[in-house]
Amino acid sequence: MPATLTPPAAPDAAAAPTSGRGRWITHWDPEDDAFWNGGGRRVARRNLVYSIFVEHIGFSIWLLWSAVAVSLPAAGFRFTVDQLFWLVALPNLVGAVMRIPYTVAVARFGGRNWTVVSAVLLLVPITLLVACVGNPGTPYWCFLVAAATAGFGGGNFASSMANISYFYPERRKGFALGVNAAGGNLGVAVVQFAVPLVITVPLLGAAQGDGVWLQNAPLLWLLPVLVAACCAWLFMDNLSVARASVAEHAAVLRNRHSWIMSGLYIGTFGSFIGYSAALPLLISSQFPQMQGLLYAALGPLVGSLARPVGGWLADRLGGSRVTAVTFLVMALGVGGVLVSLSAHRFAPFLAAFLLLFVASGVGNGSTYRMIPAIFRSQAVAGAGDDPRAVAEAAARGRTDAAAVIGLASAVGALGGFLIPRGFGTSIAQTGSVDAALLVFLAGYAACLAVTWWFYLRTVLVRFSPSLAGAAV
What we know:
The protein is an all-alpha fold. The chain has a single domain, classed as Growth Hormone, Chain: A (Up-down Bundle), CATH 1.20.1250. It is built from 20 helices and three strands. Helix 1 packs parallel to helix 8, helix 3 packs antiparallel against helix 4 (111-120) and helix 12 (256-286) runs antiparallel to helix 16 (346-380). The longest helix is centred in the last third of the chain and has 35 residues, at 346-380. It is globular.
């Protein structure tokens, strides 16, 4: 494949992207306006588009079980409600674990190269799910194994976000990362809208149970996965500036802000992905007369669309301010769910959950905007006035931020496991989901307190002068 060409209209050849072999870009400086306007913007936008495509498919595969599990009883698989909640929770647990090596892989192998590999790996959960639902005698443990491999789709998010964070200048990161994530998050809504439709169509094989064709659900994504892998191979680029050793990535583990932001991301993204996975089963168990899957798909839809809004607001108002407000709104949303369940009214129940999704989407964007701002500010704090030293420090800050983005995405995704398991355990132990919701409410209160303590107090400058003036 020929290397990416330097844009002919660049006013300064030294300022434009320069490429090596194998689609490796050897010179990348988006903070330089001449570089950015001379071709950098076009290259960044192209990589963003195809990154979104692959990440979108990855999210669809990751949350495929949230849509399939609801229909397993109708297909003749007699699993308990708690067993079904395990099937929708397990992909999130595995996806959270996979996000660490996926982030490191970008620095080790290149963003474009790893995007291709991560897309091809999605064929594994597709194949295993087809095998499971195609045999009515498939044991439960086989379903657990197949569901676990869907976690490969969750890893895609971390590598995609870490990769795209290098392409954009600081002033545009919030919106760019928000759009990238939103495009991926929309895969959740797409899979929950599409599966109820395709499983009623007699395409391949025999119908299961009450006339459903569950094998259609994974096969729907077979061709898109192959197309996404080809597009990543043909049109994306690797950045030499994104190369970093495992030791360089591991260095951020000693920074307390890495763990603080990871914890806050459990409250925002963990809520988004956890509620996305659990809501179809939750509606089916609490309001069995409703079309659970189609209503549930509205949640990830509005949450995904809200994510770039969160990044945009954080660019202008500061990420910590926006994040604090989102945790307050999410607490109000949980209160609305509790009240609506006690009255057993579906409309306010759904409205409260949609509020939770919107707030979590905005919070996803604002927390991810905080990460590069925090680590850039820390890196350049001791660089002095030497432009070269400042540039080197800023580059180190970008490397640290990319590593923390991967760490935070991994830790945050644990919420996708904890929330479905919280609902499943609460139902199994008490017959109600109220206990789980009260725990979530306490969690949002804790996140709000942490955001205020570390990023909003007026004494912040005294205790963390490196963050003074940062857009956090």
